[in-house]
């Protein structure tokens, strides 16, 4: 087990107009499950590949267990990586695939057998040990790739979208299995995904990247409740947080008849005329009293919940809005509903910089 630290790590690809990874500073605790998440092209795979030693670092350093490994070969970093396509050897059996890394490292035959059998038991692969990968399902192949990583007993596991080739149901099951396995082994893990649900459900902490820049690194709950900027606010959570641009009047923004105060200190010196107010779909309530009138365009019924999408006239502008409603008594398309909210459940961001104000 080991800590992992990125210090000012930067990657510039030839021909790229900006850094693929830009001064990344990230400290991962011993035994922690850290998820790197962000949209396509944000630099998450490049960050992981630099940690693995598969990509050179242009600036900064990477340390594993306190040792600077920036110039180390991949094989000398004591890491094991699980790839998206599993990268299994088709001509080898499951057992040979799992033991391959140990064999290359010159490990004793009996020890390899013992470790492969242990891993197969943990991953429920014992009866497949003599099969070739082509005779396995996608989920079973995924487990073989995991098995190959865990038999090595590395200091750090690196996983690059390991669930993306599985169907939706299997992905949910496997994500729970990987989380449970990681907790049991307590091996420091860096996991890359573009799926914010995967990030939120698996990570002890989640690091959100955009355009090569780290936006926020926090526990899933903190990230959800206190996003640092509009990008994180919109990226984490589904459906996304409502983000409404509202004029600043008399030290506050008004919306649906109530006023959300904006502390003067938060905007001192930045000359804001408007503020972006964020409110999550579940923090809006349908009321019979006064509030914001919304004309419903679409109702998505999910069983317990329904997501209601509509338009509201806010300060003379039509703005889209989504609210979570009770799925047992969902409103109907074309209806006008009235929404209320609690000011303390809203988030305020600078309309200019996108940064959180309070
Ligand atoms: P995805 O989810 O699509 O894999 P990602 O977040 O993992 O995306 P990276 O693959 O790390 O993103 O890419 C980050 C940036 O670096 C992108 O703009 C990409 O085009 C660029 N890039 C990645 N690999 C190379 C390369 N070998 N040569 C040039 N540019 C590259």
Automatic annotation (TrEMBL):
The keyword Nucleotide-binding applies. This is Sn-glycerol-3-phosphate ABC transporter ATP-binding protein UgpC. SMART domains: AAA. GO terms for molecular function: ATP binding. Residues 4-236 form the ABC transporter domain. PANTHER family: MALTODEXTRIN IMPORT ATP-BINDING PROTEIN MSMX, OSMOPROTECTIVE COMPOUNDS UPTAKE ATP-BINDING PROTEIN GGTA. Keywords: ATP-binding, Nucleotide-binding, Transport. Pfam families: ABC_tran, OB_MalK.
């Amino acid at each position: 087990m080991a800590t992992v630290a990125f210090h000012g790590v930067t990657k510039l690809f030839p021909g790229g107009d900006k850094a693929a990874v830009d001064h990344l500073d990230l400290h991962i605790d011993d035994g922690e499950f850290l998820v790197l998440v962000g949209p396509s092209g944000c630099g998450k795979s490049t960050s992981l590949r630099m940690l693995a030693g598969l990509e050179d670092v242009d600036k900064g350093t990477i340390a594993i267990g306190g040792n600077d490994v920036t110039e180390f070969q991949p094989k000398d970093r004591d890491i094991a990586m699980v790839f998206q396509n599993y990268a299994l050897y088709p001509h080898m059996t499951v057992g040979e695939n799992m033991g391959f890394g140990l064999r290359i490292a010159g490990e004793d035959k009996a020890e390899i057998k013992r470790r492969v059998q242990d891993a197969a038991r943990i991953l429920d692969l014992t009866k497949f040990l003599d099969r070739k990968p082509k005779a396995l399902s996608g989920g079973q192949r995924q487990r073989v790739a995991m098995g190959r990583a865990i038999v090595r007993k590395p200091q750090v596991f690196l996983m690059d979208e390991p669930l993306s080739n599985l169907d939706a149901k299997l992905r949910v099951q496997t994500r729970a299995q990987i989380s449970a396995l990681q907790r049991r082994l307590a091996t420091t893990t860096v996991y890359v995904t573009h799926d914010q649900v995967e990030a939120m459900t698996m990570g002890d902490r989640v690091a959100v990247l955009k355009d090569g820049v780290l936006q926020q690194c926090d526990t899933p709950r903190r990230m959800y409740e206190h996003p640092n900027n509009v990008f994180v606010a919109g990226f984490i959570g589904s459906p996304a947080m409502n983000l409404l641009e509202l004029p600043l009047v008399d030290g506050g923004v008004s919306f649906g008849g109530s006023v959300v105060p904006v502390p003067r200190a938060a905007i001192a010196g930045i000359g804001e005329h408007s503020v972006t107010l964020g409110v999550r779909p579940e923090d809006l309530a349908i009321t019979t009293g006064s509030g914001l009138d919304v004309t419903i365009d679409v109702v998505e019924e999910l069983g317990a919940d329904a997501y209601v999408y509509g338009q509201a006239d806010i300060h003379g502008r039509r703005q889209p809005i989504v609210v979570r409603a009770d799925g047992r008594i969902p409103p109907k398309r074309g209806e006008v509903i009235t929404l209320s909210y609690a000011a303390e459940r809203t988030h305020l961001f600078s309309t200019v910089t996108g940064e959180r104000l309070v």
